[in-house]
Amino acid sequence: MKLLSPFSSRLLQRITVLLLLFAGLQAALAQEKEGKPESLFRIDVVEEGSGWPVPLVELRTTHNVRFVSDNRGIIAFDLPELMGRDTWFSVKGHGYEVKADGFGYRGVKLKPTPGGKATVTVKRRLPARRIGRLTGGGLFGESQRFGLEQDWEESGILGCDSVQVAEHDGKIFWAWGDTNLPRYPLGLFHMSSATTGPAPLKSFEPPLRLRFDYFQDADNRVRSVAEMPGKGPTWVSGYVSLPDQNGRSRLVGTYVKVRKFLEVYETGLCVWNEEKSVFVKHRTLWTKTAEDSKPPRVPDGH
Fold first, then answer.
1. How many angstroms separate the CA atoms of 226 and 193, rounded?
2. Which stretches in the chain have pLDDT values below 50?
3. Least CB-packed of 87, 166, 204, 254 within 10 Å?
């Protein structure tokens, strides 16, 4: 058996190290490329006639992978198993649709390719045009994968229930009920809130970019603004700005306390505390008892 000289042994070691480094670099580059626009297939969903982008249109493959257009009407398609293949997408848009085929299927056939692009045109069936989502996560999530809307910042809210709006003190005050957050399945249950200017949109044309100034805690996380004493969530409605006895505008509302399965057991009035930026309890109007199980009429609604 012939032994290698010390020089040959060191040379072999260096070549081995270089080959390993090269292989690692190739793997890193391949992994990085997976998230780049050139690895994605861009789908633009637009309205027939106007060419406006249409948000919240669902495209679903035959194996039930769902893609939803963002506020720019964009979908970033990234399934490797369907790249280069004729692919059927069912199209569903809640007021927007495409023509049904002979079997009644409403959809389109596309051939996704890395770096490619296609446009899906949908027909509007409702009087109003959809211009975009106001709340939730990923309003421009698909677009950002293509390097667009990079200045858009996420609010930290993934979804919220209902909305109350009132003009107060030169601003528009917005508030929402149960609010979903990323950090845990149970989010905020005592109203989340934000403000905007009195005319927050420059136009009513998409893409919609409404920026909210949310009320946050010391860790810059969206917080509750209406936690009233008692068990269960607090919901506030009937938002309105009214003058007090001194002529000062006060933001007020009607709160309810809820327990078990949507059982309202207390109603009352609350007032916005300007210093603490929270609603505080003003007065209890009704508490549920065996003798008095029906709440009275109170200011309610939007």
1. 9
2. 27-34
3. 204
